[in-house]
Amino acid sequence: GEAFSAHRARAYLDDGHAVICAAGTGSPFFTTDTAASLRAVELQVDLLLKATMVDGIYTADPKKDPGATRYEQLSFDSAIEQQLGVMDLTAMVMCRDNNMPLRVFDMFAAGALRSIVQGEPVGTLVEV
């Protein structure tokens, strides 16, 4: 890999390449969620992908509450108001305020990333 440069990353995207941003910003007080939101907004991508250990966002923790149901779609305001713990508040507000859609999905589900790229409704979509 190489050190992040928004200009260089945007040039790669404009040339049709995929750009994967991993880790944080190297700045204290920035979570990896906030770093991901920042990079997504900075690069003006179409969608921020959050790969997790569950297959989306639920009404409650599905490991603790067998009655929890998965949202197919959700607004940022609703996720924030319900304190669903999708991402930290700074990251959620940054996405909301910059109209950056977010898709939360299970990183261990076979074919999930391919399905998302092909436009299939995998996991939970969070929008303004």
From TrEMBL:
GO cellular component, one term: cytosol
GO biological process: UDP biosynthetic process
E.C. no: 2.7.4.22
Domain of life: Bacteria
UniProt keywords, alphabetically: ATP-binding, Kinase, Nucleotide-binding, Pyrimidine biosynthesis, Transferase
Enzyme type, top EC level: transferase
Pathway(s) of this molecule: Pyrimidine metabolism; CTP biosynthesis via de novo pathway; UDP from UMP (UMPK route): step 1/1
Pfam families: AA_kinase
Molecular function per GO: ATP binding; UMP kinase activity
Residue stretches making up the Aspartate/glutamate/uridylate kinase domain: 5-106
PANTHER family named in the record: URIDYLATE KINASE, URIDYLATE KINASE PUMPKIN, CHLOROPLASTIC
Family, as annotated: Belongs to the UMP kinase family.
Protein name: UMP kinase
Organism: uncultured Thiotrichaceae bacterium
Taxonomic path: Bacteria, Pseudomonadati, Pseudomonadota, Gammaproteobacteria, Thiotrichales
